[in-house]
Amino acid sequence: MKKIGEILSEEIRSIAIAGHINPDGDCIGSCTALYGYLKKACPAAREIDLYLETVPHELRFLKGVDEAKSSVPENKVYDLVIVCDVSSYERIAVAIPLFDLAKKTVSIDHHISNANFAEINHVEPDASSCAEVLTGLFDPDLIDEKIAESLYTGIINDSGVFQYQNTSPDTMRKAAFLMEKGIDFSRIIEDSFNKKTFAQNRVLGYVLMKAELAFGGQCIVSSLTTEEMDRCGVTRQDLDGIVSRMRFTEGVEVAVFAYETDENVFKLSLRSKERVNVSDVAAHFGGGGHVRAAGCTIAGSAGEVLDKMADVLKGYLSL
Ligand SMILES: [Mn+2]
Is this structure's pTM higher than 0.85? Predict the structure, then answer.
C-alpha cells in the first residue's frame, strides 16, 4: 500500500479503529491520528468509531481521545476495521469481536514480529513508530494541526524523542513535516514523554536500587511484584520508561525488567543497545516486538522468571 486511500472506497460506510492492549503513546497517537484523518478523507463513511482500552492521563490532550470507546458493542459488523501498532491477533484484546466480524480488516504496524493476521497487512519494520508509518500513508494536505499533534506524539514516544536506534533520517523528515503544521512540539514532549508523577519517579528509583548486573555487566535486571507496586502507590501504567533508563547503564547490552501482572505471572520488558535482537529473545517465550525493544510474559516467581530469561539470554551474549 502506498497511500491509505487505496483501502477506502464508496462502499465503506462504517469503520472501526483499534489499538493494542495497554495502549502506549504510539498506539494512541496513531489511532487518534487515523480517526481524525479518516473523518476528512472518507466522507462516505457515516460511522467512524475509535476503540481504545485505556488512555493514560498524559495522553488525554490528544484530539479524539474523548470520543474513544473502551468496550465494544455485541455483534456489530463494520465494513472496515483498521488496527494500528498491533503485532499479533491476541493483542487486539478488547476489539477482537469487531475484528472477527468485520467485512474487511487492515493492520498498519511497525513490529518486526508482526504476524500478518489481517487481510491487508502494511508493516514497515524499519519505521520508528506506527505513527511514522501513518504519516507516510496520509495525504499531506489533509493533515491538520491536531492530526499532526497525534502523529508527532506517536513518533516521539516510540523513538524516545529521536534517541533510540529506530530513528532514521526519514523519521526526522516526517517529524519536520509535522512541525510545519504548527504543533507545539516542546509542550508535546514535556507533557507526553518527560513529565512523571512523584510516584512514577519514586518507583523508577526503587527499581534502579534493586537492579543487579549479570553476565559480566552486559545485562542489567530488576523486578517489581504487585505487593511492591502497591507499596509504591503505582499501577503497571506507571512503569513506562523504566527499562529504557536501566539500559542507559554503562557497559550494558541488554536490560530486563520484570513486573508482576497476575499472581506469579510477570511481564518482561527487554531493551538492547547494539547487538542482541531482543524480539528474537522474547519469541522464545511467545512474545515479540522490535529488534531493540520487545516483551514477553513468563509464569513463576520474580527470581524464577529472571532465571528462565537468563538461560535464553546466555546464548545471545558473548561470554
Ligand atoms: Mn509502536
Answer: yes
